[in-house]
């Protein structure tokens, strides 16, 4: 496994929050990606951990990859919606949104996929990793005007230097971020795809919950490199 490289880019990438307690490693056939789950979104954190333990993401795939946007993994929308159509008696089960103003779609963010339900509730078995692109002030100004919301200065700075997908903010739940292996996520997002954004070569991943000892080691590494900038 490649060693952790902490740079100014990563310092900008990581959310300004208190040290988090839960880490998950996506073991892919391209290399590994380690993700820190946010304690600020405990319901999504626990829902994802439960899904991992129950095997919902065993041999899952990044099955919808849109370059410079996101890499989506788990079940596709059509798979979920068609199953619900075949079994209307089960209803359309969604997970209540946990949208926080300080958790946003910067590069490396982990989000929960959803359909167009008015409550912005999440699917149980679909996630995505944000790649996005760097934004200009003009682009951010246009998003502010369209969505009638102000983008905080600190978030603007990250969108301008590291990148992301700011037009998705406040519409989807963000519940974690990459702390190791962003280069792997970039490589996955750059893969050749067909007209439906499906990678021509399958990208399989198996998420593994890091032990308490492993998580503590990660916390120490992040703090040593002053990744956590707000207590």
TrEMBL record:
Keywords: Isomerase, Rotamase, Signal. Residues 1-19 form the signal peptide. Its EC number is 5.2.1.8. It comes from the Bacteria. This is peptidylprolyl isomerase. The keyword Cell membrane does not apply. It is an enzyme of class 5 (isomerase). GO terms for molecular function: peptidyl-prolyl cis-trans isomerase activity. The keyword Metal-binding does not apply. Residues 32-210 form the PPIase cyclophilin-type domain. It comes from Pedobacter nyackensis. Pfam families: Pro_isomerase.
């Amino acid at each position: 496994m490649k060693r952790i490289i902490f740079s100014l880019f990563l310092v900008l990438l990581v959310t300004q929050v208190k040290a988090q307690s839960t880490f998950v490693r996506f073991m892919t056939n391209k290399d590994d990606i380690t993700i820190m789950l946010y304690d600020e979104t405990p319901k999504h954190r626990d829902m994802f951990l439960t899904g991992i333990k129950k095997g919902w993401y065993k041999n899952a795939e990044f099955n919808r990859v849109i370059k410079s946007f996101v890499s989506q993994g788990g079940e596709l929308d059509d798979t979920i919606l068609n199953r619900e159509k075949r079994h209307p008696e089960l209803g359309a089960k969604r997970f209540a949104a946990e949208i926080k103003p300080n958790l946003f779609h910067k590069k490396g963010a982990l989000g929960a996929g959803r359909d167009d339900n008015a409550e912005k509730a999440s699917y149980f078995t679909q996630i995505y990793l944000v790649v996005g692109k760097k934004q200009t002030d003009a682009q951010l100004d246009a998003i502010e005007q369209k969505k009638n919301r102000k983008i905080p200065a600190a978030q603007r700075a990250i969108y301008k230097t590291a990148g992301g997908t700011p037009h998705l903010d406040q519409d989807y739940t963000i519940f974690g971020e990459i702390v190791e292996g962003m280069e792997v996520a970039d490589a996955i997002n750059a893969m050749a795809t067909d007209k439906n954004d499906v990678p021509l070569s399958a990208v399989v991943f198996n998420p593994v919950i890091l032990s308490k000892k492993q998580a503590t080691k990660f916390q120490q590494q992040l703090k040593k490199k002053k990744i956590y900038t707000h207590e």
